[in-house]
Amino acid sequence: MQVFVEFSLIGLASGGIYALMALGFVLVFKATGIFNLAQGALMMAGGYFFFGLSQQLGWHWAPALAGALVAASALALVIERFVLRPMIGQSEIVIIIVTVGISSMLVGAAGMAWGTEIRQIKDLLPRQPIFIGDLLIPGASFWGFVVAMTVTVAFLLYFRFSRAGVALRATASSDINAYSMGIDVRRVAAAVWVGAALAATFCGVLLGAINGVEPTLGDVALNALAVVILGGLDSFGGVIVGGLFIGWLQAMVGAYLGGEYREAVPYVVVLLVLLVRPYGLFGKKHVERI
What we know:
The protein is mainly alpha-helical. It has one domain (2-276): ABC transporter involved in vitamin B12 uptake, BtuC (Orthogonal Bundle). It contains 11 helices and 2 strands, in the order ααααββααααααα. It has helices at residues 2-32, 39-56, 61-84, 92-114, 139-161, 163-173, 175-180, 185-210, 221-231, 236-256, 265-276; strands at residues 130-132, 135-137. It is globular. The protein starts with a helix and ends in a 14-residue tail after the last helix.
């Protein structure tokens, strides 16, 4: 029983970071309809920006984090303005392929700038284990979960109650109607790309503090795809439920079936869920009449 509870807590800690990863996917998709496969590369870039400022230049973690967030936001704005905005009107598959190309370019650039070895972000998250009775939780994972969930909830509250959130929801409902009501749809698209970059940077920094930063760090975002599909592509609340569930499930599979099944089983479960609810657990059901 103790093993079950310990691995459950560790899995939920990972799930909190998955939820923050998935938030970036949902933000961009909800406002623009683009499934952004460059989100993992933005996460990797944010981690490297923080590493460069904090570890290589010796900045304190607070200004280093602020600098990384600004740099990642600028990168996202450049991508949205000069790469994706001119693609408006193209088919969805073309735009998806473009985001894959962006991801490959960012991974290659990171490899040339920092090399392919793992770079450690030191002294950011406390590593002393957390004891709850006889249960032990790795300190870095626990504090990573706390930070990830705090940032995720802050994002959700902002987009729920702010004017930017109202504009986002209006654009997600109908960009034509939003434009007719005076909402600058292009500015909303730029804003959600910045939001996705901010979420990605927090994830990159947290994962870098736990396991280190490397050019393939963005591959972890593949786990967030399962979260997005499970929770629903247009559901903010679904990312929290889906993230916690996928993190917990991976921990259980790794503990009882072995690490070789850890990555595959969540996708099998997601596939089974989609057979019943193709739009995810919390996604909106879209009906098209011909």
